[in-house]
Amino acid sequence: MHGIHAKSFVQFLITLFAFYAIGQTEAHVSAVAEGDSLWTIDLDKSIAIFQGVVKKDTSNSYALNQLAHAYRASNDHEKAIAVFEKLAVTPEYRNTVFFFIADAYLKLGDFESGVRYLEKSVESGFTNLYNSGFTDLATISSSPYYEALKTKEAFKKLLRKIRALPFSPQVQYLDWSPNGEELIMQAALNGSGSYDLYVYNLKHRALRRLTYTRENEMAPKWSPDGKWIVFHRSELYSGGKELFLIRSDGSEEKKLTDQKGLKGTKSFPCWSFDGNRVVFVNQDGPDANDLYTVDITEKTYTRLTRSKGIKSNPTINKDGLVVYDVQLSQNSYSLVKLDMNTGESALLTQKNWWWTPVWIPGGNSLVTGYYETGATMRNQLAMMDQDGLNKRIITDYGEDAWFPSPSPDGRKIAFAAPVNPFFMGGSTLKILDLESGEIAHIAISGD
Fold it and tell me: Which region, left, alpha or beta, applies to residue 26 given φ > 0 means left and ψ of -120 to 50 means alpha?
C-alpha cells in the first residue's frame, strides 16, 4: 500500500511539473508576442521583454533572434553581435546570421571581422551578396561604411570571388499591363548587382530592358492607359529614393517627385484609377512613415495617413479604397484598408504576414502574399474579400510564391517563384490559372 501511494505521488509530481512546463511555455510565447507587438512602439520595452524570456529559457532561439534584431535596431551593435554569435551555432539560424554579424562589425569600424563574416555568409550559401535579397551588393554599397570598406584588400578579394560565381536571375514586383499583353518587373538579370526595369511580352515571349543604371529601379506600375510606368529609384550611395515616370517604350524618363516638394524617401507608387494621381509611401524620419498622393500635373502633395507602423505596397481600386501592408510588430505584417473619400480605415488582418496586396480587377477582392509565422517558412499567395473575409490560399504547391499581379480579366495571377526550392539561386516568373489551377513557368534570362 505504501508503494502504491509513493507511485501515485511520483505520478502526481510528474503531472504537476508537466502543467508547470506548459504554463511556462505559454507564458514565454505570450511574452514574445508582446515583445513583437511593442517593436515599433517602444523598442526599449520590447528589448526588456525579450531579455526576460531569454534569461528564463536560454534555448529559445526565436526569442534570441528577436533580441538580436532589437539590439541591431537600437544600434547597440556589440550586444547584437554577442546574441547573433549564440544563434550561429543553432540549427535554425546558423547560416542566416553571418551577414548581420558582419554588418554590425562594419558599423563598429572593425573591417577585418566584418569581411571575415561576409565571407562566412558567402560560404554558408545564405547569400552571395551579389545575386539577391536584402544582403546583396546593393545593400552593402548603400551603407555609410562602404566608402572605407571598398578600399580594403580583403574586401576586394572577396568581391573577385563573388563575381566569379554563376549569376542567377532575380525577379520581383510584377505588374500586368492594362491590355494584358505584357508584364513589367524589377529584375537583376545582367550581373550588375542592381535592379533594372524589364518588360516581358507574353505573346512573343520576348524580354526588353527599359533602364540601364547603377541604381535600383523598383516597384514599377503601369498607368491605367498603359502609356506610362511609375517606379521608385533607390540611389545606392545616398540611400535617397524618388519617384520617376517612364514611357512604356523606355523613352521620356522624368522625375515625378523631389525634396523641394516633399522631404523624405518615396517608394512603392501606385496609380489612382483615373490616372491623375499616384499614391506612395514617404519616409521622413524613423517615426514618420505615411501614405501620400502626388498630382501628376500640378505636382501637389496630399497626406493620407498619420499613424504608426512601417507602411508599404499600397494598391487602389475604382472606389478610392487603398489597401496597404503595415509592420506593427517585428513578426507580423497586417493589411489596412483606407477610404480616400472619407479617411476611414479598417484592419483587414492581424496575425502572421500579409503583404504586397493587389486589387483583383473589378475592385471587390484582393490577392496578397501570405506567410504563416512559425509554420513552414514558406510564403504563399492568398485571396480575400475587400473586407478581409473569405481568406483562402491559392498557391499551396510546395514552393514559395511572391509579388502577385492579377491579369486584367482577373483569371490569372503572375508571381515570382524561386529558381530552386531554397531560393538560393534567385527567382523567376510563373503564372497561375485560377480556374484550372495550372501553373506555367516562364524562363527569364539576362540580356
Answer: alpha
